[in-house]
Amino acid sequence: MTTDIITLTRGVPPAEAFPTKQLSICFDAALEADAAVVLQYGQQPGYPALRHALANEFAVADAQVLVGNGSLHLQDLVASLLIKPGQVVYTEQPSYDRAISTFRRRGARVVGIPLEPDGISVDRLAAALAHEVPAFLYLVPDFQNPAGATLALEKRRRVLELAEQYGFWVIEDIPYRKLRYRGEDIPMLRELNPARVITMSSFSKLLSPGLRVGYMVAPAELVAAVTKLAEDTILSPVLPTQAAVAEFIERGWLQPNIEKLKALYRPRWQAMAEAVRQELPGAQQYIPDGGFFVSVMLPEDANYQNLVGRAKEQGLVLTPGQAFFADPDDGQPVAGERFVRLPFCAVTPEQIREGVRRLASLI
Fold first, then answer.
1. CATH dotted code for 6-18+256-362
2. Is the pLDDT assigned to residue 2 strictly greater than 60?
3. What is the spatial order of strands in the sheet that 293-297 belongs to?
4. How far is the CA of 255 from the CAs of 178, 179, 250, 251, in angstroms?
5. Which of 137, 191, 295, 324 makes the best surface tag, with the fewest CB within 10 Å?
6. Residue 347: burial class (beta carbons within 10 Å; 0-12, 13-18, 19+)
């Protein structure tokens, strides 16, 4: 049995990615400058300086920004506000597993629309909409979790046209957007038409997940309603971490930190892309231009039965693929057992090459 364990499960940053010393400085500065606010109840929409910085970034009013305890918490609040029991929510297929479980917990039937190399199938989405209009459509348009796919510009426009036509919200979840390793940015859905878009992101991938600082940008009326729900749920946001992030941005440290992360992650992304192409040539491959994940859909004739269990015996820890799949839009069985998400940011190029080699030997 292999003794060295290679973990290819969660999309987490490695310890060496954290700007520890700079964050320590920012916490000290925030506490010294504004302790009466930072250590007190209040500021339910989020720490004012951080809200203002985000409003400037997205070119909106402060009232259109809510900063909360991680983007998943905000997604949960939005879901509880917008979903009526039994109502459908559409996602990409596959999609972020925790988003699927969150929406289901709030009473939704979560239906997945097939994902293509350039993002969600707009034709299948249009067909689903003709049958049933959702509470919202949930998308990770840039370097998608779990597959890695990026939604093409023309598809972004078409999705927004459908949102206007049928009158539903589109949640664009963009935690990976700023981690692009090649190519040019595609406009956010918000930039194309903000009227029906709820933009969500966080600083988990850019600074630290332990900070639990996420945010949403949406029409002021929706932000106000979610803020009230948040206050009823948690009383007050975690202001010390929000204030530290505001200080980090104010000092001009965020963009240089993002460039450091790109320099750290780019060789790992390249190693994963090369390993997948070399070791798994028969699989359908999603090789993104950024983010945290490469993924593969194994061929139907591959030996994928009990893959996670057999991989563990070889010292390779994988995430079961089924969790990333919502209910199918066409009633046909989903191919979750053949799907493998391969996060690369928290492992070295050497571990990546050996991990994919082990995976290939099992199928």
1. 3.90.1150.10
2. no
3. 284-286, 293-297, 339-343
4. 9, 11, 11, 10
5. 191
6. buried
Does the domain at 20-250 match CATH 3.40.640.10? Answer given as: yes
Amino acid identity, position 182: R
- Which of 171, 164, 169 has the alpha carbon at shortest distance from 139? 171
- Which regions of the chain does DSSP assign to beta strands (E)? 6-8, 65-68, 88-93, 109-116, 119-120, 136-139, 169-173, 197-202, 214-217, 284-286, 293-297, 316-318, 327-328, 339-343
Name beta bridge partners: 302: none
C-alpha 355/C-alpha 8 separation (Å) is 8
Domain regions of the chain by residue span: 6-18+256-362, 20-250
Taking only the tens place, the pLDDT of each residue in 5-16 is 999 998 999 999
Task: State the pLDDT confidence band at 3, using cuts at 50, 70 and 90.
Answer: low
Maximum CA extent, the chain: 63
Q: What is the mean pLDDT of residues 327-341?
A: 94
Q: Check residue 82 and give left, alpha or beta (phi > 0: left; psi -120 to 50: alpha).
A: alpha
pLDDT computed for residue 10 by the predictor: 85
Quote the Cα angle for 299-180-347, to 5°: 60
One-letter amino acid of 146: P
Q: Which residues contact 212 (CB under 8 A, 6 or more apart)?
A: 69, 70, 73, 204, 238, 241
DSSP assignment string, 74-105: HHHHHHHHHPPTT-EEEEEES--HHHHHHHHH
| Cβ atoms 78, 226 nearer than 8 A | yes
pTM of the model: 0.96
Half-sphere exposure in the Cβ direction for 355 (13 Å, CA) = 27
pLDDT at residue 321 in the model = 96
- At 61, which amino acid appears? A
Residue 198 to residue 218: CA distance in whole angstroms: 5
Q: Are 7 and 339 in contact (CB under 8 A)?
A: no
Type of residue numbered 248:
F
Is residue 160 within 8 A of residue 196, CB to CB? The reply is yes
Q: 155-176: b or e for each residue (b if 16 or more CB lie within 10 Å)? A: bbebbbebbeeeebbbbbbbbb
Q: What helix, strand, coil percent values describe the chain, rounded to 5? A: 45, 15, 35
